[in-house]
User: What shape does this take?
Amino acid sequence: MFGLIGTPLSHSFSKKYFTEKFLSENIFDASYENFQIDSLNKLTEIINQYPTLSGLNVTIPYKKEIIKLLDYIDPEAKEIGAVNTIKIIRGEEKINLYGYNTDSFGFKKSLDYLPKNYSKGALILGTGGASAAVAFVLKKLNIPYYKISRNPNKEKNIILYKDISSDLIQSYPFIINTSPVGMFPDMNDCPDIPYSLINATTIAYDLIYNPEETLFLKKCREQGAFTFNGLAMLKLQAEKAWEIWSGN
Assistant: This one.
């Protein structure tokens, strides 16, 4: 048994994705459930309540907070500072939780679908767990970036939304929304960026995949930008998570 922890989970396609995967690949002894929890204090209860539970995905808002509950963290996940995949190892005396980050794998692989000018520079909207995975990949690829937040920090390359200028978008044409703004059911929301400055050289990537086209992507598309949602990344990171859980 496998599952997803976070809140809210109404937007998530993970259960549908894994259920269909298990059926199509004739994996009849596996199931996938959503565990919407308002506190990580309930994690131990879930693990004890479901003795066949052997893997979890972690989503908003627990990707950073979960780390303190783990017995082991993969070096890459530790460097990122966020975990979205847990392998549960049940011993005779103790249950050990192993943490990994498959968001970084999914994001990096998804770059193959984008125009090549993404490597010029990026603006990362948001500073949560997904943002950390994206920044990790960009750093490894030597792609310069700024994070955009309401709480600036020059040492961490974090600037304000109001600092986004025409020159900045020209120099950093790859704009990635890693925040939950615009996610189902709040589909009339979008990040507060100057959309009038977006142009045909812009690549707008939203890690959100529900709805398929967020208001952020729609506004960027109407300005001539190349747009891309998070469905490919979701599938890629999910396959990596399955690889970790199954050992294949």
About this structure: The chain has eight helices and twelve strands. The mean pLDDT is 96.
